[in-house]
Amino acid sequence: MSRTRHTFSIRRRLTAQLLVVAAVLSGLLFYSIRTVADAAVEQTQDRILGAATLAIAEELRGGAEGIDIDLPYSAFSMLGALGNDRIFYRVDVNGALATGYADLPLPDTIPSGLNPEFYNAVQLGYAVRVAAVGRSVLVEGRPVPVLVAVAQTRSVQDSIVAGLTNRALLLGAGFFLLAALLAVAMARSVLQPVGDLADAVTRRGPQDLRPVRRQVPEELGPLVNALNGFIGRLSGALSRTETFIAEAAHYIRTPLATLRAQTEIALRQSEDEAAREQLRKIIRLADNTARSASQLLDHAAVIYRTDQRSDEDMDLGRVTEGIVDGFRPSAELRDIDLDYIAPDAPVTIAADRLLIETVIRNLIDNAIKYSSEFGEVSITLERTDTQAVLTVADTGRGLAGLRLDALGKRFERGGNVADVVGSGLGLAIVTEVAAAYGGTLDLTDREGGGACARFSLPLA
Predict the structure, then answer these.
(1) For the segment 193-227, what is each residue's pLDDT rounded down to a tens digit?
(2) Any idea what the Cα angle at residue 338 is, between residues 334 and 344, rounded to 5°?
(3) In this structure, what are the phi and psi dihedrals at residue 2, rounded to the nearest 5 degrees?
(4) Does residue 437 come out as left (phi exceeding 0), alpha (psi in the -120 to 50 range) or beta?
(5) CB neighbours of 209 closer than 8 A, spacing ≥ 6?
(6) How many angstroms separate the CA atoms of 199 and 382, rounded?
(7) C-alpha atoms less than 13 angstroms from C-alpha of 265 in its C-beta half-sphere
(8) Which of 58, 287, 345, 366 is the most exposed place for a label (fewest CB within 10 A)?
(9) Could you tell me which residues come within 8 angstroms of residue 437 by beta carbon, excluding any fewer than 6 positions away?
(10) CA angle, 89 as apex, 87 and 92 as ends, to 5°?
């Protein structure tokens, strides 16, 4: 049986696409958390840094001798509450350095009022965050501009952001893992109706050609309609095939039988020996053609019925006995003794009656055909624990060293039967029926001369 070549898997493709979406969303989640965390930490530090800067600026006092600068301890304690960062400060009065680090970078524009201006800078090789505040202090009744700048290194901020980043990474990984599991489950769930439909069609027997009546998603409707259309066409084709086989059997066998009868009449009426010999050849050719046509039609019927068989429980003993009785007249014409032995109890099998009858007829016909006159054909039916075994043995020419794998092929015949009418299809039919039912056919030489065919089928 040929199998469809799969180019890709919808389930794997859908799962991969969902995993890509999950990965993108996980990355966006990580980036969003990282960005928000960084902004939140920086805003918190800016507020603390701005409060410390304002605290220093608010402690500036003007007097007759100048500006009194008192750096409050609370300002530095606020900055030290977050961790061990380095602190830098600078106080300029009227544009000149009053105290602090002279190299601390100043803002591009001098701020006015008590609203801190924040900016990033580098101080002594450290990346720092700077807050600058500008105000005016009265000295001898005149306003003097003062600039206060306080800087703090970013190590604490970076460590906090790093911790939050690790948590965001774990959260993103967990989200991706959960999304991956959901993607696999979703892909399986989405494609489950396809698998259910395939299982429903697969469980059907070969003779079940009813339309598919199953609730399916809307997207599978065109597929089911196409499948039902195909089943309808196949059912019609098989019906026409069966009708053709039956009609062909009638229209082939009837003219051949008529030809043979007319030739026999001509043979009895003819007195010319040469003409009588030609008429005998015509009769032999008619017999050969009739047998070949009959077996070809039987083989066609077997091929059809193995896919469209109607199995029923039957007593193999009674079926065999009826066929044996039908062959007794032809066996007696050649003085061949037909011996049939079967158990008293029924031997029940579940099979198509037409196929089984075809097998038995072919086995017995071969045994009679290849047996010599005054020979014997022994037919034995046995029952084992699991199988029914039909053995047909003759006293004919034997197998001439050939095996079943050669004789079981279509149109294959032994080299020692060229003078006997035959088509080489009998054993091929038996072999195909045995394979269809999980049975076996064994063909061996019979001790003392002849052949022995052993056909077995599972019991019902």
Answers:
(1) 888 888 887 777 666 677 888 787 888 888 888 88
(2) 165
(3) -75, 150
(4) alpha
(5) 231, 234, 235, 238
(6) 38
(7) 6
(8) 345
(9) 351, 457, 458
(10) 175
